[in-house]
Amino acid sequence: MSLLFTENKRFSNLVKAELWPEMGFTRAVVTFNGAAGNLKVGTVLGRVIATGKYKVAVDTATDGSQVAAAILLEDVTVQANTDKKVLVLLRGPAVVAKGALILDATYNNDTKKNAVYATLETKDIQVYDSI
Fold first, then answer.
1. What share of the chain is helix, strand, coil (3-state, %, to 5)?
2. If you compute the radius of gyration of the chain from its CA atoms, what whole number of angstroms results?
3. Which of 5, 102, 109, 127 could form a disulfide with 43 if both were Cys (CB 3.0 to 4.6 A apart)?
């Protein structure tokens, strides 16, 4: 049987629970400034220490963005090195599905991935295997 269509990931695939979503308690609009591309819901972002701006978390980075700091809550197209406001899950209490998180390819083994999940859990964002 051939593939008929593919479905994009949705917000509901990622966020399973959060405190006071109607008030935006766990969410924030932050400034993204990184490589150009089409970013999807669930992309894990890191925060650059020097600028306070966010970009895709990459394990090999040395500017602070290697540490998971937020999760993208919308699909966005970004230009290289251009500021763009994006909506993120910044803090908990919240529960997200592990399978909906999008990690950079540099997080290429379970040890590195588990470190990302543990960092998110320090922000009170619980990462569940399945819900």
1. 20, 35, 50
2. 14
3. 102
Task: Name the domain count of the chain.
Answer: 1
Angle, alpha carbons 125-98-88 (nearest 5°): 50
Does 6 fall in a domain?
no
Cβ-based neighbours of 18, under 8 Å, separated by 6 or more: 25, 26, 27, 89, 92, 93, 94, 95
In tens, the pLDDT along 31-53 reads 999 999 999 999 999 999 999 99
Beta carbons of 37 and 78 less than 8 angstroms apart: yes
Position 71 in a domain: yes
First to last CA, the chain: 29
